[in-house]
Structures are given as C-alpha cells and as structure tokens.
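=== Structural record ===
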Amino acid sequence: MTITIRVEGAQPEEIVRGLLAAQEVFDKAGVTPDQAAMARFVVEGWDIRGFTGKVPEDELAICTVWDEADQAAVQVCCADWAPDKVPGSADLELVREPQRFRFASEEERSEWLFQTADAGILEEMCEEGYFNDGRPEDEVAFLLDDWDFELRTEEQRRLYHERIYPLMRVWFFERDRFEEEYHRLRAAWSCDKRPDDRQFELFTA
C-alpha cells in the first residue's frame, strides 16, 4: 500500500516532493506506512482506555512516525510558499485505504478502535482477575486467551456473546462504571441456572 497527500493549491511537482519527503521519514524509521498508521490507531485506543492494561510497546515505539511523515510532506511540498499559506497538515493518506480508516463520526472511530482491540481488552480483564471464579463464562474467557473463537462450541459462543462481550464494551466505553456493572451482572447470572445445567458441563468432556 502506498501513500498520497492532499494540499490545496500545490503543483504536481510540489506534491511529488512532499510524497518523497514523507516516504523518507518512513524509510529512516524502518517501518511501512501501513505499520505506522496502525500503530497510531492502537496507541490512540490505549489512550481512550485510560492507559490501562498491557502497554503496546511495539506500537508506542513507532506511533509518532505517521505524524512526522505528514509534517515532513507539508513542509517540503510548501517550501516556497508564504508562511501564512502553508497548511497545518498534508492530509497524508494510504492509497486504497481500507474503509475502517474512514470515519463519519467520533462514534464510528471509537467503535472501530473497540473492534480492533477486543482480544486485548479481554486479556486485560483476565489479567485483572475479573474471570477467576470458575464460572462457565470464566472458562470461556480464558479459553479465548489465544483468540481462537472459531474453535469454540455453540454454547461457549453463547456465553461469550451474552456474558463476556457486554462487559468488554463497558470496560472500553464506560470504564468509570465497570465495577458496578460487573458485580451487578455477575450477581444476576449466578441466579440464572439452565434447567439441564448444561453450562456447568461445558468442560467435563
């Protein structure tokens, strides 16, 4: 995947100079534009979660490269312009950019960050001890540590969608009320016994 910039009023040769400057930043950092863009989104997701859980060390090391490339592009592209005409950004983009990188609203952006971080969110919750009671959904949570969701049984998937996924969303979007919601739902589920007790037999085979 390659990059493009959008600078209103720039001539083709100026655009080319800007693109070369941006690519030079990526080359010097030893990362591709795709890697830099993804690292930026991962770190932003970690920021939204309040810098809690596992630190995305690999992404932190390169998360600024995308913005550095953007600034290099606009400065070189507009090198001969009057200072008050130089825009603040070159609007650096990935060519054939996946739809997930385009957001019509902040809600869509946050939802995308949640979807891309869901495995990490569950891992954080397990590390914090929220699924240590030996309940059926607890077993499912730890089975998903490697995120092999497709290998789970229909009953295990049901437990994930009904009892784990809702808590993951609260953890990500409404962290301040997570403890309250966690204890409320866990108390309600402890009284919810299926007649054939199948949820307690998930892992006896």
